[in-house]
Design brief:
102 residues; mainly alpha; 4 helices
């Protein structure tokens, strides 16, 4: 009977993780972005300058380097990852805790 009690406790932990993940996702969805976002004017200006530089370089026959900016670790990105981990942790098929309780 001890195995049954531990299995129920593990199910409760999984249910708790899922509940926290759902609440975190809902708060993040309705509260909006927590990280500061650039304005539309800034984004359009950056793209226009990049297009101008690429066009001038192409007309001069120069090769342009494509620079990919790595996304910074901001609050929104961390919240997305935490939500996914909390929501997926109880459903992991190779969960060592669940296997030990069966």
């Amino acid at each position: 009977m001890a195995k049954q009690g531990s299995k129920i406790g593990f199910i409760g932990i999984g249910f708790g993780f899922g509940s926290v993940a759902l609440l975190l996702a809902l708060v993040h969805f309705w509260a909006g972005s927590f990280s500061p976002q650039p304005t539309v004017e800034q984004t359009v200006a950056e793209k226009a300058v990049a297009i101008k530089k690429a066009t001038l370089a192409a007309l001069k026959g120069e090769k342009t380097e494509i620079k990919n900016k790595e996304a910074p670790w901001d609050t929104d990105r961390v919240l997305y990852i935490i939500t996914a981990l909390l929501g997926g942790l109880p459903h992991c098929p190779n969960n060592f805790l669940y296997d030990s309780l069966i």
